[in-house]
Amino acid sequence: MKVLVIGGGGREHALVWKIAQSPLVTEIFCAPGNPGIASLAKCVNLEVDDLHGLLAFAKDGSMDLTVVGPELPLTLGIVDLFQKEGLAVFGPDKSAARLEGSKAFCKEMMVKCGVPTAAYGAFTDREEAVAFIRKHGAPIVVKADGLAAGKGVVVASTEDEAISAVDLCLLDEAFGDAGKMLIVESFLAGEEASFLAFTDGERIVPMASSQDHKPIFDDDKGPNTGGMGAYSPAPVVTDALHDEIIDTVFEPLVAGMAKEGCTYRGILYAGLMIDNGVVKVLEFNARFGDPETQPLLSRLKSDIVPVLMACASGSLEGIELEWHDKAAVCVVMASGGYPAAYEKGFEIKGLDEAAKIDDLVVFHAGTAEKDGRIVNTGGRVLGVTGLGTTVAEAIDKAYQGVRVIEWQGVQCRTDIGKKALGR
Ligand code: AMP
Ligand code: GLY
Predict the structure, then answer these.
(1) Is the peptide bond before 252 cis (omega within 30 degrees of 0)?
(2) What is the pLDDT of residues 100-130, one digit of tens each?
(3) Which residue owns the Cα nearest ligand 2 atom 4?
(4) Does some domain include residue 334?
(5) Ligand 1 in contact with 183 (CB < 6 A)?
(6) Quick check: CB of 100 below 6 Å from ligand 2?
(7) How high is the pLDDT of residue 17?
(8) If residue 296 lies in a helix (H) or strand (E), which one and from where to where?
(9) Which residues of the chain fall below pLDDT 50?
(10) pLDDT digit string (tens) for 60-111?
């Protein structure tokens, strides 16, 4: 089989790494890929939103399966385009990807399907949004409706801060069209977890639980990022909660999407807030999480390719996932200054030494090759992922890798996985 993976981050490196282990696969291509991916796949110089370029490449190269990593091509309708041409493609179509592309649509579906979530209002009018904020008081959360590269959410501790966020969206148009509508919702306290499941539109095949670390600094301080590290399994998701999440979140939503005529096929990611055993959904994403995918796929024992094919062809019947008993922890190493402006082009040292460590994989995200050297080019640069018998051992392994890698300005959190140790 020939497989094309779309994307070039740590998530796509983990997908390519896992797909490369499948005996079904003879050749892997990745667009645009990165230097880490290049050791496993042929990188193709096409951007993720070049839908027609990607379609031509998949058709001309007779790809047997295309796996879409990021949300942008999904919301632009890449799956619809490939399906029209009879190509097998993993991911939801444009109508189903609205779950991530529009927070208003996502909340509307949750309410329709009875999925537990925070109370909210959707607004295009400033005064109405302000009245809602004044009525409900702070803390309160303001979210741009559309895709905003993880920057569209403000958790406001005062009413004035929330109103500034409304003005930024609706008056200053800081997020362009993505912020023409916004959501204001109640603040939820608790501990976050990520729960991903494969679905063919009817059946649900859950992945193991995981937990991301969104804020840039230790102890969840500082601004939110794309995710500074993740681990799996996440003990905050007990066995009882696992079943409850399937029954009260995934089953009703997947059935509701089909009923609305926008059947969801692919991987469905629920961002959860868990407070004293009570689960509420913060958001749905229409793709694998990044960095959650790095620890999740490090622990997945089953061949992923038949699962991806089954979602693409519409039948997950008979598919079950097997997991390694080990825990996995991924520590993101980021450029200095991220998530604000950062300097690029510094040589990354220690990658060869890290490659010699057992039970450790260094997934590349924002890297490039320059004159035979690997340099940082993105905010999140590497996902150093360790396996261990326990989360504590996996933490030690991941940080053993982190200690041998360096470049000018590098930063990472030192407490990835710590919440699991407290449980
Ligand atoms: P979202 O993109 O909707 O997942 O929001 C990004 C982050 O903002 C989440 O991972 C949470 O840390 C935080 N957040 C979003 N909604 C809420 C909420 N209603 N209450 C508390 N924190 C929230
Ligand atoms: N790690 C958060 C996300 O993938 O959206």
Answers:
(1) no
(2) 999 999 999 999 999 999 999 999 999 999 9
(3) 289
(4) yes
(5) no
(6) no
(7) 98
(8) helix 293-299
(9) none
(10) 999 999 999 999 999 999 999 999 999 999 999 999 999 999 999 999 999 9
Domain match, 306 and 339 both: no
The pick from 120, 147, 155 for probing ligand 1's pocket by mutation, whose C-beta has the most ligand atoms within 8 angstroms, reads 155
Per-residue model confidence (pLDDT) at position 174? 87
Number of domains the chain is built from: 4
pLDDT for 184: 97
- Predicted pLDDT of residue 262: 97
Query: Which H/E stretch holds residue 73?
Result: helix 71-76
Q: Do 303 and 208 lie in a common domain?
A: yes
pTM above 0.85, yes or no: yes
171 shares a domain with 265: no
Residue 341's φ and ψ, nearest 5 degrees, are -60, 145
289 in contact with ligand 2, CB cutoff 6 A: yes
State residue 237's pLDDT score. Answer: 96
Domain boundary, last residue among 290, 313, 336: 313
266, 293: one domain: yes
For residue 71 and ligand 2, the question of a CB distance below 6 A is answered with: no
C-alpha 5/C-alpha 18 separation (Å) is 12
Residue nearest to atom 5 of ligand 2 (CA): 289
290 lines ligand 2 (CB under 6 A): yes
Examine the domain organization and report whether 209 and 303 are in the same domain: yes
Contact 291, 398 (CB under 8 A): no
Whether 211 and 330 have beta carbons less than 8 Å apart is answered as no
Q: Which amino acid residue places its CA nearest to atom 8 of ligand 1?
A: 153
For residue 108, is it within any domain?
no
Give the position, in ligand 2's atom list, of the atom nearest the Cα of 291. 1
Strands, sheet with 327-334, edge to edge from the N-terminal-most edge strand? 211-212, 229-232, 327-334, 380-388, 360-364
Please tell me if the CB atom of residue 36 comes closer than 6 angstroms to any atom of ligand 2: no
Ligand 1: which residue has its CA nearest to atom 1? 283
For residue 150, the model assigns a pLDDT of 75
Q: How far is the CA of 404 from the centre of ligand 2 (A)?
A: 26
Range of the domain at 373: 327-421
Cα 143-96-140 angle, rounded to 5 deg: 15
